[in-house]
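Most newcomers find our protein records easier to grasp once they have seen one. A learned vocabulary of local backbone shapes supplies the integers on the structure line. Here is such a record, shown just as it appears in the course material:
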Amino acid sequence: MTAGIGHNNGPVMEAGQTYRAYQWRQAQRALMPEAIPLQIVRMRMRRATELGMSYKAYASVRRTSGHDILGLLFSSNALRIIGNGARMPEDERARLEAVVKASKLAMVHRPNHPGVVLAQNPELDATDAAPLFTDSWSAMRARLEQFVQTQQLPGNRVLVVGDAPLESEWATAARAAGYLPADAYFAQPLR
């Protein structure tokens, strides 16, 4: 049955819909194991530590994207890089130094210059200018995708870490693995 004019494409109201939804949920549960094997949990806990993240945050991103994280894309706000050529604070610096087996990228807001920020913060692997708040969605997506591709990383394996409302949109625009607020990323104590 096709929807007519004025139909809002809401749930169907025909008989048996509740039972079909129940069957669908049962089929999904049957396909998914109840618990992840302990060896895999340990491996993922180790990987979360390598990325400087909590296991809970890593597991959430991993579950959503279905992939491991190969790159962390920070905004200069998330790294607390304020002022032209500023260095990030020691806590953020120590966290990035501890990250292994992942690229550490930064999108830098004005008045900072990407080259100066990279020179002042050797913990970073690459920097680029952040999309402007006035950029269109397509311009923002193009800037983010180009930067990630330049680093030879698949977008769906890069996690965006930001600290401003519009930066959360970077994850969607870049088709990234997900978005994590800076306070959640930096809250995990270093080991």
Summary: Strands lie at 71-75, 103-108, 126-129, 158-162, 178-181. Helices lie at 17-31, 38-51, 55-65, 90-98, 114-120, 137-150, 168-173, 182-187.
